[in-house]
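Standup notes
- HV: blocked on the assembly model, inputs below
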Amino acid sequence: MARRELLSSLIISDIRIKYKGSALGLFWSMLSPALTLATYFLVFSVFLKNGIPYFVVYLFSGLIVWNMFQSAVSSATGVIVDRAGLVKKVSFPREILALSNVGASVIYFAIQIVVLAIFLALIGHAPAWSFLWLLPVSFVALYLLTASIAVVMSAITVYLRDVRHLMDVVLQLWFWVSPVVYSYENSIAPALRVRGLTALYFINPMTPIILTFQRIFYVHTSVRSTTTGLPLHILPTWSMSTFALVNAGLLVFSIALFLIALVIFGRLEGNFESEL
Amino acid sequence: MTNVIEVEGISKRFTIHHERNQTLKERILHPRSGSSEIFDALTDINFNVAQGETLGIVGHNGSGKSTLLKCICGVLKPTNGQIRLRGNLAALLELGAGFQPELSGRDNVYLYGSMLGFTRKMVDAIFDEVVAFSELEHFIDTPVKFYSSGMYVRLAFAVAVNVNPDILVVDEVLAVGDERFQAKCIDRIRHFQREGRTILLVTHQADTVRAICDRAIVLDHGAMVADGPVTDALRIFRERLLGDVVDHRPGGTGAVNIDGVSAPTGTFEVRHGASLKFEVTLSSHHAVSGNLVLEIFTRTGLLVSRNDAQAAPVELRPGVNKVGVELANVPLLDGVYDLNVGLVEPQGATMIAWREKAASLQVLYDGRSSGVVAIESSVTQW
């Protein structure tokens, strides 16, 4: 109970500090994702002419997932080293520091979902209502996955300080092996199938989560290209039950991962004070 | 009486890295480099603290006091042993360590409260008291980065004492803040004692221990060397400090011993207002110059007087020396007092020799004033 209070006051203070003294406050937290969205849209849809209609919606639904993961992991990686003063002086469950960063990312995620919903309403693009119930399932899996990595990385950084920089690189690579700015079916699936690498691609747990979000918000599995007029396969043509099964598996996996992460953190936390 | 703190066989071992081998790059390039040393900060500490007791923990710098407190507060995990606590605990390890400089005093009170394990509602209930105690009404919405260090400490202390913990842990913090605020803190601590709460106090000010604690433990190089009544513990603490000084002196000069004072029965009898003359016998191996320190304590441990050592220089010759001392017009009231005698170096506060309770003073007084000293007062009606 008290832990939840501590978590929420840490999240609130995190967000307050970040946007203190700026009149527009939380608006700034939206500016960076908006700019990323605009850049990718320009590059892939306008310059490279990938021909995918409503490409903004496709991008937005994937980026929401990625932004939450990336911002939480990159801020949590150094959090224990940065708050060494606190860790060495005050007794509290230390994993809460990393979890508060994840919590702050969840709040930005929620705001972005609202912005996306408004955007969809404005352009009259309806989500796949029948798939909508998968959203919370997929989100919980995303939250636990993000939290697991955030908690473990925050502890490892105490022992190996340069893991922070390594993590920046890893996150960049990770972004490009996840189908956010390109379409899985259209760009990469055929090549993977020929070489038998599909399973390898799906080792990345972010992929099914992103695909689920895209299926919910972008809806169409195949569309007609706006440039050539030919049909384009955008998303896997999985049935509802396949998506449900994938998400259920993901949920079980992420719960297990989170428990393992807490155990690892507990092991590493014992030596913090001699390393900080 | 129930024990609220049980410390069983606590040891804490630190590994000190001489070369920080803290990056992945270095681990890969030089997998075996980096020397490290084992340091035992605490070895086999055992004690209990009963409900309502105030325990002082004394020791010189580096004796492991703070490590012990951190283990009790759960900031450090002891290498061996077990600590059991009953009730909630508020620690003042370093005041304001949990504060976020960017946030206002108000936000920090809530944040700090939640770190001590309290819910928002509980902090709501005590918020006004916290602000009143800290006397920061006008600054409570100012970011704490603009606070002076005194204001910082006042706010942190106010939170910790107002959350009404069962166990209060205080580490050297009473030394900060102005005298008035210090007095207020001591008042609050006494209030705590009356309420039957348990207090753990770390300090190296013997006076504070005497004034507040029921019992004290002494740490020396990570080991517990005394556990008992305050006066006994402080005597051992002083002896250990002296032992250190002698050890660290090259050539062993300054091996001065205070053999005693000229009171055959160990007690001087003196009438209130009269003067007392006596001799202090010191034996020395070398010629030593120093200043004589005289302390007079009440039996309850209150320091009545410490002389101005600078004004009491002595030059010791090798061998046995006798130094005459006169206490003029003793203003003390009826009672028994203890006399401590010491010799400090001319410049600093380094103790060369010390004798706790060198003698006691039996003061005889016929008047009707009560207390420790007589202050002549007269009343005139206009």
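- HV (later): unblocked. Chain A touches chain B at residues 1-2, 5-6, 9-10, 13, 16-17, 20, 85-86, 88-92, 159-163, 166, 270, 273-275 (CB under 8 Å). The radius of gyration of chain A is 20 Å.
- Next: hand off to the docking folks.
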